[in-house]
Specification:
Its cofactor is Mg(2+). This protein has ten helices and nine strands. It has about 260 residues and is of the alpha/beta class.
């Protein structure tokens, strides 16, 4: 029986996403969620999430590419990638931004994050990765870090999966071993977020599942008021996870849904 953890990204990005995640946690469909602490909705949303602190892993969704009204440090994804790979980022600014997001999490949740990942996987980018891991070491971080080193490749999304994995997963894995930070062993959840049969994608991932598989997802209750390029995919994901089909798919493939922190 393979132990699998489903993690919903983007908690607190908006109310529709947060409420969807809470509902799916209550159903037992999710075992982790990562939080965007720069959102003006963070404290209100966190109050609903906090009662589940002992039931799921709650992490920090490190952000440098999504603009919140708080005036956070933000780049377009191409600009951030160029700056990260050319070491053209301000170390003091990046450090401050990470610390602010960390402090916002700790001050509200009353504990360190159970794990760290990144919005659009920015946590594995060079320069950002080095600063992040050093800060985590200084804070005696005891959680796990998301890694894309060993992804499950879907037939139609091999290129995207390979590219995301190539954006720093090997270097992140090596650095985490040096710092002795835990990571997930396998990863899934990558597709193009277009109209597709999301249940079929999950059935493929689950059929290939091995222990320590982390599956990323992005559910939402309804179309958010803000412009969101993956809004239709979010709704489709929520509908699948809240359906009777999801637990049946898990049962068929011999899946034990477990928080990743409990697997370490």
């Amino acid at each position: 029986m393979a132990k699998v953890c489903y993690c919903a990204d983007d908690f607190a990005m908006n109310a529709e996403i947060s409420n969807a995640i809470i509902q799916l946690i209550e159903r037992g469909a999710l075992q982790a969620t990562s939080c965007m602490t720069q959102s003006k909705l963070w404290e209100t949303a966190a109050a609903k999430l906090k009662p589940f602190s002992n039931q799921i892993d709650i992490g920090l969704h490190l952000n440098f590419t999504h603009a919140f009204t708080s005036g956070n440090t933000v780049f377009s994804l191409p600009a951030l990638m160029f700056r990260a790979w050319s070491s053209n980022l301000n170390r003091e600014l990046i450090t401050q931004c990470i610390e602010e997001q960390w402090d916002a999490f700790v001050s509200v949740m009353g504990k360190q994050p159970d794990f760290i990942d990144g919005h659009q996987h920015v946590h594995q980018f060079p320069f950002i990765r080095d600063i992040l891991l050093q800060l985590l070491k200084e804070k005696n971080f005891a959680g796990w870090i998301r890694n894309l080193q060993h992804p499950i490749y879907l037939p139609h999304y091999r290129f995207k999966t390979h590219m995301l994995s190539a954006l720093g997963s090997n270097a992140l894995a090596k650095a985490c071993q040096t710092y002795q930070f835990s990571q997930n062993e396998y990863f899934a959840g990558i597709y193009d977020f277009k109209q597709t049969d999301y249940a079929e994608l999950n059935q493929y991932w689950l059929a290939q599942a091995k222990d320590h598989l982390l599956i990323m997802c992005h559910p939402s209750l309804s179309t958010p008021s803000e412009q969101d390029p993956i809004q239709h995919a979010r709704i489709q994901e929520y509908q699948y996870f809240s359906s009777d089909q999801f637990p049946l798919d898990c049962q068929k493939n011999g899946i034990q849904l477990t928080r990743l922190g409990a697997m370490q």
